[in-house]
Amino acid sequence: MVAEALIARWGLGRAKDRFRGRVAEGRVPAGAPGLDDGPAPRVAVLRPQTYMNDAGRSVGPARGSLKVALDRVLVVHDEIDLPFGEVRSRLGGGLAGHNGLKSVKRELGSGDFMRVRVGVGRPDSTDPEIVSAYVLGRFREGDAEVRELVDRASDHVERVVLGREIPEREG
Asked: pTM for this one?
């Protein structure tokens, strides 16, 4: 949802099928909040079309082909350990059992990539099947709350891309 919002916000146009995903490329537009007078940064927004737990098989080849430095890779992901609506960023750190992040780390050869963690809250159970159904299911919050979360996460990603938000560093 955040990827689609950023593609629209930045006017990247139609995504192409590449790298086992859909990728839209272009530049952050000149009117973006926080963009200085310098050249607009080039961006590529990749939406892997693999299973979430296998996202690295899309991210790894995309990074290689597009020649993106590891510290310029930014992964946006759901985070059940953050309350719904909270958005945080960090560089590196643990994977908290997130199989999609494990796959990305494996394919990139390192976990030293940037992440924007989008809080979706945690279900009232630790049963893996209930947790899985929770993160793969529909939001329980209303459409307006979900739109607000997507907007907040998109703003956060944009600040990170433009160097206005410095991700915390975790070992």
From this structure: 0.89
